[in-house]
TrEMBL record:
UniProt GO MF annotations: hydrolase activity
Entry protein name: Esterase
InterPro entries recorded: AB_hydrolase_1 (IPR000073), AB_hydrolase_fold (IPR029058)
Keyword Hydrolase: yes
Residue ranges of domain AB hydrolase-1 in the record: 20-260
Top-rank lineage group of the source organism: Bacteria
Species of provenance: Intrasporangium chromatireducens Q5-1
Keyword terms: Hydrolase
Pfam families xrefs: Abhydrolase_1 (PF00561)
Length: 275
């Protein structure tokens, strides 16, 4: 079992003035603000249908960095953040990809905080390696931060053909004084990716299979064009989350909430009782 990393309070952004509490967790190289439009729509036109909290996970955005990656550590940091934000209250926790795994751990290890769970395009399993991210990681490492003159300069130098992916990764680039730095803990992520099949980020903590199943309602949203969730994942998902209901969004990739925001918003609002 990995030793949980200890980090300080996580950076959050809130919206909404009334209704159930909903926390949003992003994926690898993401930030809480990636959920901004979804959360705004879930909160409703008057921002009174839900109280949403957008969380920067450890090693991402404006949250503290950890010395080593640990799903238990990430879950503990999120749990502490939720408990501090609304003492004694329960949350619907929504997580995509990396954030989906963290959300599952929060529900399993801290069930007193979680009323409902939404897992977006990820399964509770070991994905083997971070090979699918190695090209992005290498390109980020290749960018000569000490030579960058402007964000436009960084965009020109950054070799990524997909404009959406480029914009997503470069959101991590921040000016610091006269220079630039990566907000995401790139060194930690790169070191984890270099572990190959021993990657902790790609993995799934075995201790999760030793705790009691989460007995609250669970919505499992998958992209119809994504390869992250497969038919054979249903058995293990149901063993940990017996009340799971799956929604597969046709035509959507791994980035379901970006490809089909209206579908995701409608599903979330129904799930939390905002409609």
């Amino acid at each position: 079992m990995s030793t949980p990393s200890t980090v300080g309070p996580l950076h959050t952004r809130s919206m909404g003035t009334a209704g159930p509490r909903v926390a949003f967790l992003h994926g690898l190289f993401g930030q809480g603000r990636n959920w901004n439009q979804i959360a705004k729509s879930v909160s409703g036109p008057e921002q009174a249908d839900a109280r949403c909290l957008l969380v920067d996970l450890p090693d991402h955005g404006r949250s503290p960095r950890s010395e080593q990656f640990s799903y238990q550590g990430y879950a503990a940091a999120v749990a502490a953040t939720l408990a501090d934000a609304a003492p004694g209250e329960q949350w619907t926790v929504v997580g995509h990809s990396l954030g989906g795994k963290v959300a599952m751990l929060v529900a399993l290890l801290h069930p007193e905080l979680v009323e409902r769970l939404v897992v977006v395009d990820i399964a509770p399993k070991d994905y083997g390696t971070l090979a699918r991210f190695e090209g992005y990681i290498n390109e980020m490492l290749r960018l000569p931060l000490d030579e960058i003159e402007s964000r436009g300069d960084a965009e020109e130098r950054f070799q990524e053909s997909d404009p959406g992916v480029k914009a997503f990764l470069l959101q991590n680039l921040r000016r610091e004084g006269e220079g630039w730095r990566w907000q995401a803990n790139l060194d930690l992520i790169a070191a984890d990716a270099a572990q190959g099949s021993s990657s902790r980020i790609a993995g799934w903590p075995t201790m999760a299979d030793e705790v009691a199943p989460f007995d609250g309602p669970v919505l499992w949203i998958a992209g119809g064009e994504s390869r992250y969730v497969k038919d054979e994942d249903s058995d293990v998902m149901r063993s940990l989350f017996p009340r799971v209901r799956q929604l597969t969004v046709k035509g959507a990739s791994h980035w379901v909430h970006t490809d089909a925001p209206d579908v995701v918003v409608a599903a979330l609002r129904r799930f939390i009782g905002a409609d």
